[in-house]
Design a protein that fits this description.
- The protein is mainly beta and 251 residues long.
- Helix content is 6%, strand content 39%.
- The chain starts with a strand and ends in a 5-residue tail after the last strand.
Length: 251
């Protein structure tokens, strides 16, 4: 929680910001025992609609090391009792927050992902249901390989207890088996990371910006209560919900 104190003549006013939610980014290539430095290789910005929402509702955000934190100015739910707190300005019932994620060439080289363009992007959302290893993930569960689909270089699918990533473009019309090592690389074990299941057509997710990914946090439509950002009565959770986006490292 962050407290700002404003001193006026004869009075003291405290402005209290509290975390609305937190998003952690996990990538072994950008972590040491002391710190994470993935923020040097991805940039995050609110889209235009979210920027307006933030201005109108006293919301701010900060991205540092591996953590994106969204703050909101608060008031007491039942003053003078200090807890619980609520947003100072009532949030829209259909609140939608979208962050745009831009990646560096170094990130693309060290990560099992597709180099997205104007027609497709990754989408991470709190409307999924993927809690794994104690983490509330914003990534969709890794999907099974399908012989009926085309796959781009760098994406991830699973089969049995292993992940697979194409090292060449794989077309369904080619009928290429996962056992063909000229096209597929086997990665032992299944981790819940950004994968082909998160790769979306840009038009389908209403994304008109050329970026690597969109991160969508919505107030309604969650499948699992662990993904809520506000409790009943607009009360803020204390501590705030922590979501995670994990990436599979190439190194």
């Amino acid at each position: 929680m962050t407290v700002f104190t404003i001193q006026r003549v004869g009075e003291t006013v405290k402005i209290i910001y509290r975390e609305l939610f937190v998003i952690k980014f996990a990538h072994p290539a950008y972590e040491t025992p002391q710190k994470s430095f993935i923020d040097q290789h991805i940039n995050i910005a609110a889209d235009a609609a979210t920027t307006e929402l933030f201005l109108n509702n006293r919301i701010s955000y900060q991205f540092s090391q591996n953590t994106l934190t969204c703050f909101v100015e608060t008031a007491f739910f039942n003053p003078p009792t200090e807890e619980p707190k609520i947003p100072l300005i009532t949030m829209p019932a259909d609140m939608k927050i979208r962050f745009l994620l831009y990646s560096s060439s170094d990130f693309l080289a060290k990560t099992y992902v597709v180099a997205t363009g104007s027609k497709e992007a990754y989408r991470f959302s709190n409307q999924v249901n993927n809690i794994s290893g104690g983490f509330t993930l914003l990534t969709t569960p890794v999907e099974n390989h399908s012989a009926a689909k085309d796959y781009s270089i760098g994406t991830l699918v699973k089969s049995g207890s292993n992940l697979f990533s194409p090292i060449k473009t794989v077309l369904a019309s080619q009928s290429i088996a996962l056992s063909d090592t000229a096209f597929w690389k086997k990665l032992p074990g299944v981790e819940q990371v950004a994968s082909n299941a998160d790769l979306k057509d840009s038009a389908a997710i209403l994304l008109d910006v050329n970026c690597f990914a969109a991160i969508d946090i919505q107030r309604t439509g969650v499948i699992n209560n662990s993904y809520k950002v506000l409790d009943t009565g607009d009360k803020l959770f204390n501590p705030a919900p922590v979501f995670t986006i994990r990436f599979k490292s190439r190194i």
